[in-house]
Design a protein that fits this description.
heterodimer, A: alpha/beta, Pectate Lyase C-like, eleven-stranded mixed sheet, 27% strand, B: alpha+beta, Glutamine Phosphoribosylpyrophosphate, subunit 1, domain 1, seven-stranded antiparallel sheet, five-stranded antiparallel sheet, 11 helices
Chain lengths: 239, 365
């Protein structure tokens, strides 16, 4: 089902999306917020620029955007998949606790801020290009991968990555000698095993965006994790 | 009991947008009004406004004072004072359209003025300083009169309402500018009133701002030592005066001014490999520590012949820049840029503290 949402407000747009049981393609999208918020099933394709908080609280649906996305994509999402054929704004995957976000291009500031995980819920975000500052700020769980495959002259991540990180994992591709990490994390070269464990996610990423997995894998990788189970042990009181 | 706005705290939002033609090509206000529509929910109807550059070519030599008056008496009174300081070459009501969404408007006038030569000589002041002092004097000492725009060949248009309605109210389709900035307001800690809408202007500097300055009082105390008076009950005003002070009085470049208000962290400065850049950043932070603006902001500074967009160093607000042919677009959201130019190219989000400066070709404005 295809419909044009030009000029519709976000409420009407979402009501319309909900009213169809089939997969949907939206065209003429320009800035409407909260698209597909909390949705469980369906495959929603968006042509244009969706507004902030795309797929907030997403609960199983798949969203595919042919273009860039704005801020706070997948805010607190629980399950499902968001695929961006373009770049993404700030605070992508804000506090997400499940599901996947695949970004072909760059991410803005604070990607993966406060991502978390619980039991079998392990959210994954793959950024094909580069990420802004404060990547994985306060990260508590889940996996963030940055592949650095865009042609901008920026570094693969901006300043202050992993600030306040206390769980989960960040994987960076390529040389990262120039990046300063805070004391509460440790950055190690990825082992064969680490790279093998990334393969299923990367394979899916490559299928979605049509890139060559061999080329991606054939590089050095760094795995960043918090350096203890309780990195803030002595921050206020001994606990 | 219903509290009126200003008595209750409303959480933050705000929208900004701007467009400039590097070739100095003129654009009517319709496009910039369109750009505010997808960002409607960022504002709450308590303030909207626009700044337009190049709109008064026939009066380009004169300062265009846009003014709000509470009543006829305050206008008459103020005109008397104006005549003591300026030669008024033209005075008129700013044309507006009656629409249901904009109500309680004050009396809105504009005056094209030139400072009186004799006064300038007597006071031994340059023109711009003289105009600045006159504006401060009117805004602090004349109840019911308020200058909200005072530059040459530019003007601001602002009101309480949603920006797209404010644009219709002021008939912006009738103005032609080479550069426009726009603002939709969502007042946070301060009342929504006509004077409190953005842009905030002094001479040809105008500021539209999305954010909330936590250093406001420190900045205000410092800048008031130099004759500026913060009278408008809102934080953004101080940014305008800081920019005027740094650029006009201290004669800093735009990049330097950006490094003062959005100074990099000391740790970031320490990690710089370019020694002269490092020394310069150190110097600016040391000389102007009280002008560091902390808290979230994304701003667009308008001036004759250009624009500068800037985010706070932590980038706590969004901002996107795009281009197409001779035009550069800046907005809180990419959607706003796409409304102005669906085929905009090179969409980028500048980093925190990274100034984006766009200038019109020399002689084209």
């Amino acid at each position: 089902m295809l419909f044009d949402v030009k000029g519709l407000d976000h409420k009407t747009l979402n009501q319309k999306v909900r009213s169809f049981d089939t997969n949907i393609t939206i065209s003429g999208c320009c800035g409407q917020r909260f698209i597909a918020a909390g949705m469980k099933d369906k495959h929603i394709t968006i042509n244009g620029i969706p507004g902030n908080a795309l797929g907030a609280y997403l609960d199983g649906a798949t969203i595919e955007v042919n273009g860039n996305a704005q801020d706070a994509v997948g805010d607190t999402m629980n399950d499902g998949k968001i695929i961006i054929h373009g770049s993404i704004g700030d605070a992508a995957g804000y506090a997400m606790r499940g599901g996947k976000i695949y970004i072909q291009g760059d991410a803005g500031y604070r990607a993966g801020i406060h991502m978390k995980a619980y039991k079998d819920k392990i959210p994954v975000m793959i950024i094909g290009g580069k990420a802004g500052s404060f990547l994985g700020e306060y990260q508590a769980g889940g996996i963030i991968m940055v592949l650095g495959m865009s042609h901008t002259e920026r570094r693969i991540v901006g300043n202050f990555p992993c600030t306040g990180m206390h769980g989960g994992k960040i994987i960076l591709r390529g040389n990262i000698d120039h990046i300063t990490f805070p004391k509460n994390v440790c950055a190690k070269s990825a082992t064969e095993e680490d790279i093998e464990s990334l393969r299923p996610e990367l394979t899916e990423f490559c299928e979605v965006f049509g890139c060559d997995i061999k080329k991606i894998i054939n590089s050095e990788f760094t795995v960043v994790t918090p350096d203890s189970k309780n990195p803030y042990e002595q921050m206020y009181v001994a606990n | 009991m219903n509290h009126i706005e200003g008595q209750v705290r409303i959480p933050s939002g705000c929208a900004i947008a701007a467009v400039i033609s590097k070739d100095g090509n003129k654009m009517t206000g319709e496009k910039i009004i369109e750009s505010m529509k997808p960002m409607h929910d960022r504002s709450n109807g308590l303030g909207g406004g626009f700044a337009a550059y190049g709109i008064y070519p026939e009066y380009r030599e004169f300062y265009a004072l846009h003014m709000f008056f509470n009543d006829r008496a305050s206008r008459k009174n103020c005109e008397g004072v104006l005549k003591e300081y300026f030669e008024i070459v033209k005075s008129e009501i700013i044309p507006t359209r009656k629409i249901p969404s904009i109500t309680d408007e004050p009396i809105i006038w504009r005056y094209f003025v030139a400072p009186l030569r004799s006064m300038l000589v007597n006071l031994q002041l340059d023109e711009k300083e003289y105009v600045t002092r006159s504006v401060m004097k009117i805004n602090t000492e004349m109840p019911g009169a308020y200058v909200f725009s005072s530059g040459k060949n530019m003007g601001t248009f602002k009101a309480v309402g949603f920006p797209e309605d404010v644009g219709v109210f002021y008939k912006l389709e009738e103005y032609e500018a080479y550069s426009w900035t726009a603002h939709g307001r969502y007042p946070t800690n301060t009342p929504g009133w006509w004077g409190g809408a953005h842009p905030f202007t002094l001479l040809d500097y105008s500021i539209v701002h999305n954010g909330e300055i936590s250093s406001y009082d420190a900045n205000r105390r410092f800048i008031e030592m130099f004759g500026y008076k913060c009278t408008l009950q809102t934080d953004t005003e101080v940014i305008t005066y800081i920019m005027d002070y740094l650029l006009r009085v201290q004669k800093l470049s735009l990049d330097e001014a950006a490094s003062v208000i959005a100074a990099p962290f000391w740790s970031t400065i320490a990690a710089k490999t370019d020694i002269s850049e490092k020394e310069k950043l150190k110097y600016l932070r040391t000389v102007f520590p009280s002008l560091l603006i902390t808290g979230p902001f994304s701003i667009v500074l308008g001036f004759n012949g250009g624009l500068m967009a800037l985010n706070d160093r932590l980038k706590l607000r969004s901002m996107v820049v795009g281009e197409k042919d001779d035009k550069v677009f800046i907005a809180s959201e990419e959607a706003a840029i796409r409304m102005m130019e669906p085929d905009a190219e090179n969409i980028v989000s500048p980093a925190g503290g990274e100034a984006v400066i766009v200038k019109v070709k020399d002689g084209a404005y």
